[in-house]
Automatic annotation (TrEMBL):
Origin superkingdom: Eukaryota
Protein name (database record): Branched-chain-amino-acid aminotransferase
Stretch list, region Disordered: 1-21
Species: Suillus subaureus
UniProt feature, compositional bias: Polar residues: 7-21
Keyword Amino-acid biosynthesis applies: yes
Entry keyword annotation includes Transferase: yes
Family annotation (InterPro entries): Aminotrans_IV (IPR001544), Aminotrans_IV_CS (IPR018300), Aminotransferase-like (IPR036038), B_amino_transII (IPR005786), BCAT-like_C (IPR043132), BCAT-like_N (IPR043131), BCAT_family (IPR033939)
Source organism phylogeny: Eukaryota, Fungi, Dikarya, Basidiomycota, Agaricomycotina
UniProt GO molecular function: branched-chain-amino-acid transaminase activity
Keywords, in A-Z order: Amino-acid biosynthesis, Aminotransferase, Branched-chain amino acid biosynthesis, Pyridoxal phosphate, Transferase
Catalysed reaction equations from the record: L-leucine + 2-oxoglutarate = 4-methyl-2-oxopentanoate + L-glutamate; L-valine + 2-oxoglutarate = 3-methyl-2-oxobutanoate + L-glutamate; L-isoleucine + 2-oxoglutarate = (S)-3-methyl-2-oxopentanoate + L-glutamate
PANTHER family: BRANCHED-CHAIN-AMINO-ACID AMINOTRANSFERASE (PTHR11825:SF44), SUBGROUP IIII AMINOTRANSFERASE (PTHR11825)
Enzyme class: transferase
A cellular component term, taken from the record's GO annotations: mitochondrion
Amino acid sequence: MGDKDSITSLAQGQTDDSANPRSLAALDASKLNITLATTLKPLQPIETLCFGQTFSDHMIVATYDPEIGWSAPEVKPHGPITLDPACSCFQYGGNVFEGMKAYLGPNGEARLFRPDMNMRRMEKSCARLALPPIDGDVVLELVKCLVNLEKRWIPKESGYSLYLRPTVIATRPGLGVIASDHAMLYILASPTGPYYQVLKPVSLFAVSENVRAWPGGTGGHKVAGNYSPGFLPQRTAAEKGYEQILWLFGDDRRITEAGAMNFFVVVKRDDGDGVDFITAPLDGTILPGVTRASCLALASDPDFHKESSVRLHPQETVYTMSDLAKWSSEGKLLEALVIGTAVIVGPCNRIGYEGKDIVIPGAGMGPVGTALRKKILDIQEGRTEWKGWGVVCP
């Protein structure tokens, strides 16, 4: 073999070895190091809690290096992190996160709601942004460790919880427009109450000149870049007297999501056999929400129909503002709902579109929204066991 071939072979061998994930340290919850805060914060009255403003005493942090793999994760006091200002998370938005909650069950146990779905979504979000791969099952073990450590922060009152924010950010220090081969995982915990202090109906302003997501984009993943482009349209909606955006897409004004939440409508059927429970399909532009999936599953469950005295026909289908206006004019539009981890299930009362309002009947939550919200809260808070959706933190 010639010198040139030898050098090429050696370089290829080094590249293959460094790219071999088996030679790098995997994220390992059993290696968790714990550094406790010397002084614990006082718990504040629950009526003063605002979403995402108060944080528990500790967080979990781990880092990924392309030469080493994942560091041993560490519990440490909640506080600032230090990053190079050239990190790709700042320059190119390589950031993903999850939103999930821990609840106190009737026996004082800490509980999570379908956390496996959050972890699978996080894995897919990291893959979509070409971040170093992450094992969601290990992240879940770390989440459980943090929940048990911070259990005193979980409010006892119904409707309150400990919000959890597992986050992965790209930390490659450099300005090259390439995928980051460095990353940081951190997990925050924040006690929170209802997203809306009073569960009053939300008004929506339908927008088509701006879009939340597009085919082939990242709308079906929970990445940070999906959110900030909506801030300006949200401000415009507020100036017009509406609380959230109803995102439309395409020349036919297809209905997609509401703000950062999934959106559903309840429509009376012509055959009188209950109601249709309609939402947009997962076509890559819609976030596959955990609460969304749970509501659809309940809506197709005969046991839930019997228990709640509602007869639902769930449909994941394309529908437009013209459809919504037609259903409203015919008296078939019965409820409009925003659905997500933070809000759970909330009602809408009007939708502004082309200078007019489509008014949703009723002064608050209708029977479908009420039944779904109650059932999900009962599962989350451990009053009801359902399909293994409630997971106790050991």
